[in-house]
Design goal:
It is found in: Cytoplasmic vesicle, Secretory vesicle, Synaptic vesicle membrane; Early endosome membrane. It is a multi-pass membrane protein. The protein has about 220 residues and is an all-alpha fold. The protein has 6 helices and no strands. It has helices at about 20-55, 55-80, 85-120, 125-155, 155-180, 190-210. α1 runs antiparallel to α4, α2 (about 55-80) packs antiparallel against α5 (about 155-180) and α5 runs antiparallel to α6 (about 190-210). It starts with 18 loop residues before the first helix and ends in a 6-residue tail after the last helix.
Length: about 220
């Protein structure tokens, strides 16, 4: 009687499925959750201060916080449940991050055009200065940690969220400078910073869509 040998099934472990990788994924998820909590406060206060001061850059910065919140939600979705080890989920999350970048640019351009047309000029606001100063310090730190996590996780979505944090810090610096320079007559700095943010948003959205943001 001829005997047939049943070939052994090979179980291929996911290359990322290590204890260290899972710890990094949990940290990325926790940081995104903490970021969401702060952005809820930042966006509310930033928009309130921007509307009261007629500052397009401050309003744009407040709206950028909403875009960042979308990015954090995407990363939370990416590293939850079965999606944690899914390359397809990473691809979809990275594309969603790209779209979140692109959502900001059109609004900023339209708002700058409107404010210049009606002659609005930014005015100093204590609330705006306090909120942006806090973000100027905290967001680059948060972005640096997330960028390192993105390399460990090989996650373009996490890298995109980190870039949004860096942009938030840079925009906070620009808003602070614009509000101060407006007091000496350099009113054009405020809308210029808003346009600069729109350009950066388009560029970073394109990089995220193409998958170029993960390891740089």
């Amino acid at each position: 009687m001829r005997r047939f040998k049943v070939p052994e099934q090979r179980v291929h472990a996911h290359p990322a499925a290590s204890a260290e990788w899972f710890r990094a994924a949990r940290l990325a998820r926790s940081l995104s959750l903490a970021t969401l909590a702060w952005l809820a406060v930042e966006s509310t206060l930033g928009l309130a201060a921007g509307l009261s001061a007629h500052s397009v850059a401050l309003i744009g910065w407040g709206l950028a916080a909403l875009v960042e919140a979308a990015g954090s939600l995407i990363v939370l979705w990416r590293f939850t449940g079965a999606r944690t080890l899914s390359p397809h989920a990473e691809h979809r999350a990275r594309r969603a991050i790209a779209v979140s970048f692109w959502l900001l640019a059109p609004y900023l351009i339209i708002h700058v055009w409107y404010d210049l047309d009606v002659g609005h000029r930014a005015a100093p606001t204590v609330l705006g200065i306090v909120v942006t100063a806090f973000s100027l310090v905290s967001m680059p730190i948060l972005g640096t940690v997330k960028r390192r996590l993105a390399r460990r996780l090989a996650s373009g979505a996490t890298a995109g969220e980190a870039t949004q944090n860096f942009m938030c810090g840079a925009m906070a610096a620009g808003v602070l400078a614009g509000l101060w320079l407006n007091t000496i007559g350099w009113w054009w700095v405020d809308p210029m910073m808003a346009v600069a943010l729109a350009v950066v948003s388009i560029r970073e959205g394109t990089r995220a869509w193409r998958g170029h943001g993960c390891c740089h």
